[in-house]
Amino acid sequence: MSTRKAVGTSAGTVEYRESGTGRPVLYVHGIFTNSHIWDPVVAKLPNGLRHIQPDFPFGAQHVPTREDADLSPKFSAAA
């Protein structure tokens, strides 16, 4: 069973689900989906892992981003 939590960012609130204990594993989803895409994977992994499944603002999150949030990709060249 996972617990829904939230963290504030410069773009707004990002919700995430957390379950298990132990070494953390961060699951990143693509656009137009959410953290539930990883549920079948999490169910098959062994105990001893802390699963962190965020709902990033890629089109399927529960909480909208701030209206002034910059959601453009940012790239930087190596110096």
UniProtKB/TrEMBL annotation:
Gene3D superfamilies: alpha/beta hydrolase (3.40.50.1820). Residues 59-79 are annotated as: Disordered. This is Haloalkane dehalogenase. It comes from Caballeronia terrestris.
